Amino acid sequence: MKKQSMGFISEIENKEEIKINYLKFVIPEDLVNYGFEREFVGRFPVIAVFEPLTEDELYEILSNPNDPVVINKKRDFKVYEIDLAFTDDALREIAKMAYKENTGARALARILERILIPFERTLPSFSLNFLGVTKEIVEDPYKVLLAMSESPYNPKWKENYYKALEDEKRRVKNYLSRREKLLSEDKLEITPKRLELIFKLYKERDIELNKALEEVLSLWRQIKSYEMAFERKNFLKIIFTEDAVDNILEAVIKKNWGVFTYCENIMSKLEYSLSYLKEIRNKEVIYINSLAFRDPEKFIEEYLLI
């Protein structure tokens, strides 16, 4: 594994050699020669060599909305009713620090603790219920904490928080766009309203984004099940338009109602009119839009004009 070079190209070869991870070429016999018992080495069917995480990869870990390191820290602050949000610049700076430590992803949690523990101990005594973690905080947490303690009502802190919220929402949107192919199997479209609802669940409950997405997806499936149940019961096919689905999702999440209970409550006001449309106007499929929820009578009037 060691090489000696002569002549003017020796320096170049040595520089190239540094980039080679020789562990990739290790075979079981090398481990035995190193000192491991042959019987012990024989128990491993595969020898895996891990590459050091890059700065970009460490950032990807932190910026993933399902990352437990960030979510757990948010939960710590939520105990004190303080909402925590991170700007992209802050996460990149943390990733940069972790990369320099060269201890892998474990450094991320350690650095987050080091930066935020002073705020976790001090902010509950202020009247602030939010903290936008910026690059400035990451670089010098005690300096920023001192400034906040001297001027807790400075509008700068709220501006930082809103900037961090916008960055978080953008990261959530990017993550969902990468999952769009999986969601297409259920034919679930992520409308602006659904993105808002998913983000709201994600922030208010401090849960993994996948859990927030799964909850909305589960409610959406229940809405589709209700459409089929209504058809079996009334021999009339209804289809909720996308804006109507948004309306249902928002209502059941906000009021903590069941989908079937909420839909039955709305559709009971339309049952007679829908039967009329079916028998007199020969409507085999009726599309229910959001107007039906806001003003059932006007919805029927407009449908009669079609």
From TrEMBL:
GO terms for molecular function: ATP binding; ATP hydrolysis activity. Transmembrane segments: none annotated. Pfam families: ClpB_D2-small (PF10431). Residues 158-185 form a coiled coil. Residues 53-144 form the Clp ATPase C-terminal domain. One of its GO terms (biological process) is proteolysis involved in protein catabolic process. Keywords: ATP-binding, Coiled coil, Nucleotide-binding. This is Clp ATPase C-terminal domain-containing protein. It comes from Thermodesulfobacterium geofontis.
